[in-house]
């Protein structure tokens, strides 16, 4: 069986791997320096990829990108503050020119869902939604055993920008009260600044204001942290109900860095879903992911396989 080179381009870290049949034979992590653009990263990646490609029998290159990808061309449609030069770079042409390999590229949440679907917590499912809770909120949707994209690309992918608060914060996308603007690591400083009693909170002393700090302080009874935690749990729960009503999945997977606090988050979301989601057709399972940090790297192998089987940059189907 041929191996696939897989790259998960995060905003801060880039993971590079060699995957074969759902096993990572080799992996390496690089600093992304995404504020300096994509061209510098591709220059640093090329020798590493070439070194791995030497002597290996390779089927292709799969890339998970933290942005919106046009399905037919593999073009990055918008940069959202990461890799600002990416929309002008032809990634498939780069892969052909540098390595002579076909490139499959899609949004990172979609790649993670493909990984979980083939090798992890969504194995055997036909309708599933993955939500990644982290710096932002990523969503990907599998419907009838196929990755949902639509003609223009973003279908099933913009869940982080569903409205959960009509009177909420303005989001980077232009909407008001998006889940991502109401409860994500990027939104935390602004949320904390608006929290009553923040001046007495241990969070003012935290070296880094992230959800690990919020959950730790809340466990100690810190009032501001408890308020932030309660607000965020409601946001993630309302988002999950929205996604269940939109796509009727059998399974909602919650992943991403914030899910290190899954012991608090999962029971809360499950209880909220049980009380508020309208699912006359059956029951929805809400669970954590199985592959963690490796989901997107392994999903890139699936993406690359699907592209070769079904054609198109992102692979037409997952069924
Ligand atoms: Zn938004």
Short description:
The chain is α/β, with parallel strands linked by helices and 319 residues long. The protein is 35% helix and 21% strand.
Give the topology, please.
Elements: E1 3-9, E2 13-20, E3 23-31, H1 38-53, E4 58-65, E5 68-69, E6 76-78, H2 91-99, E7 103-107, H3 108-119, E8 128-133, E9 137-143, E10 146-147, H4 179-182, H5 188-193, H6 211-219, H7 223-247, E11 251-255, H8 262-276, E12 285-288, H9 295-310
Parallel strand pairs: 1-4, 4-7, 8-11, 11-12
Antiparallel strand pairs: 1-2, 2-3, 5-6, 8-9, 9-10
Helix pairs in contact: 3-9, 6-7, 7-8
Bound molecules: zinc ion.
Residues 161, 171, 173, 175, 178, 180-181 line the site of zinc ion.
Bound molecules: zinc ion
The top-level CATH class of the largest domain is Alpha Beta
Low-confidence stretches: none
Q: Do you know the CATH architecture of the largest domain? A: 2-Layer Sandwich
Number of strands: 12
- How do the SSEs run, as a string of H and E? EEEHEEEHEHEEEHHHHEHEH
CATH superfamily of the largest domain: ATPase, nucleotide binding domain
**Fraction of residues in H or I helices:** 25-40%
Structural domains: how many: 2
Estimated share of beta-strand residues: 15-25%
Radius of gyration: 20 Å
- What is the oligomeric state here? single chain
Q: What name does the CATH topology of the largest domain carry?
A: Nucleotidyltransferase, domain 5
Distance linking N and C termini: 21 Å
Number of helices: 9
């Amino acid at each position: 069986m041929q191996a696939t080179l897989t790259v998960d381009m995060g905003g801060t870290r880039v993971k590079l791997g060699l995957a074969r049949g759902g096993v990572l034979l080799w992996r390496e992590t690089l600093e992304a320096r995404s504020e300096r653009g994509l061209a510098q990263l591709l220059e640093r990646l090329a020798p590493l990829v070439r070194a791995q490609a030497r002597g290996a029998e390779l089927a292709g290159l799969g890339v998970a990108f933290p942005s919106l990808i046009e399905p037919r061309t593999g073009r990055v449609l918008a940069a959202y503050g990461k890799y600002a030069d990416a929309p002008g770079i032809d990634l498939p042409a780069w892969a052909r020119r540098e390595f002579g390999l076909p490139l499959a590229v899609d949004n990172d949440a979609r790649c993670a869902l493909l990984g979980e679907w083939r090798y992890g917590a969504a194995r055997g499912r036909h309708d599933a939604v993955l939500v990644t809770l982290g710096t932002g909120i990523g969503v990907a949707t599998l419907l009838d055993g196929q990755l949902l994209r639509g003609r223009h690309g973003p279908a099933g992918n913009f869940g982080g920008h569903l409205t959960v608060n009509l009177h909420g914060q303005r989001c980077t996308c232009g909407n008001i009260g998006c889940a991502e603007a109401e409860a994500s690591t990027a939104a935390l400083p602004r949320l904390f600044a608006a929290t009553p009693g923040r001046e007495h909170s241990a969070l003012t002393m935290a070296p880094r204001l992230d959800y690990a700090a919020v959950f730790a302080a809340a466990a100690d009874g810190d009032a501001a942290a408890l308020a932030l935690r309660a607000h965020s749990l409601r946001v993630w729960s309302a988002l999950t109900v929205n996604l269940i009503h939109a796509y009727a999945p059998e399974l909602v997977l919650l992943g991403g860095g914030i899910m290190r606090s899954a012991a608090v988050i999962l029971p809360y979301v499950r209880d909220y879903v049980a009380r508020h989601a309208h699912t006359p057709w059956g029951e929805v399972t809400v669970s954590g992911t199985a592959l963690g940090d490796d989901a997107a790297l392994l999903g890139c192998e699936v993406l690359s396989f699907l592209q070769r089987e079904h054609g198109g940059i992102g692979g037409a189907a997952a069924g």
